Amino acid sequence: MTELSAPATAPAAPAREPRAYPFALAGANFGIYVALLTPVMVSMAFKIQHITATPQAAASALGLVLGVGALFALVSNPLVGRLSDRTTSRFGMRRPWIIGGAVIGLLALALIGVAGSVWLVLLGWCIAQIALNAVMAAANATLPDQVPAERRGKTSGIVGITTPLGILGGSFLVNMIDGDLARFTVPGALAVVLCLLFAFHLRDRVLNERPVERFTFKQFLGSFVFNPVEHPDFGWTWLTKFLVMFGYAGIASYLPYYLTERFHLSEQEAIGTILLANVASMLAMAASSPIGGVISDKLGKRRAPVAFAGLVMVVGLVMLAVAPSVGFVIAAQGVIGLGAGAFFSVDLALATQVLPNPDDTAKDLGVLNMANALPQSLAPAIAPAILALGNATPLGAIRSGTSSAR
């Protein structure tokens, strides 16, 4: 094991990243995504279904839990990012947040697993969102500390593929595990193990002097905003990430209900179908994500993969909306994955090159990561309006099913 810390106060990255760093960071991200996305994509829908009386009540409760929880993620990511930029622990700037957040996240997921009411599920999910997004903010803030700008595309591509791998891994776990407690705690335990491995091998920066400025309420509010006029590249990057994540994750939380209500699948059949859909998505991402990162490094540009991602994802989402069969749903997820992989391949690399202030790296990455959480909050909020559209969307199929259930 490497030394616990490599003291340094300058934000400049080394000439070359530590050999194991990209894979260790990818491992930590994989664990976080398994812990966060397994509930969002699969297990939360069924957990709430188990403790509510009707399909309509389950759909409404799911929107409440995921929407409110995402708001807490919205606050946690940039706030912890800023706090980690000011952390003077002898163990490093990022390591305490990575370890502490992973452990608290596991405990919160266990609370959800044993919860017998929607309100207790909501409490556990809010704590889990705060803790695990804190881990994400601190872990990803190590990228500009560890990797020179011209080599970040490769690392970003490796890290980018952890999103579909996390979804796929979570689907496998849920498919093999029975019981709500295990479906939440096993992904959380995996996150703890992988984050601990990353933290113990991280050559974390140590801030030797406490920042002169006090952390004021004004700075607290400033943790969540930036000026898009002064930093237009960062503004466009934020908006692009938000739109891609809205398309990628906005419908996914309701996919279990879509499959059970529209295609009349049982819970286990729906879980198996989601697993196949995630396999298709992962294979497509595996093809487009690493290749996109390497190509963008060679070109020295990031725009082309982003434009390609948007166009391909639109095609996949339209396919999903009009899917006549379960097989078509799986194919649509593959197309969406192809586009998402192209985006994730350059996402983190692009972000680190347009940061407004190199001294507030984690804070600015936290603001950018708000674009991950905000779609999870907005999608449940606008779900009633989408439900009113009828069968033209996956949520419309849920509406039809709940209406017939009444």
Automatic annotation (TrEMBL):
Kinase found in the keyword field: no
Main localization of the protein described in the UniProt heading: membrane
Entry keyword Membrane: yes
Localization (cell): Cell membrane
Membrane topology: Multi-pass membrane protein
UniProt KW keywords: Membrane, Transmembrane, Transmembrane helix
Alphabetized SUPFAM superfamilies for the sequence: MFS general substrate transporter
TM region(s), chain numbering: 21-46, 58-76, 97-116, 155-175, 181-200, 242-259, 271-292, 304-322, 328-350
Protein name per Swiss-Prot or TrEMBL: MFS transporter
Source taxonomy: Bacteria, Bacillati, Actinomycetota, Actinomycetes, Glycomycetales
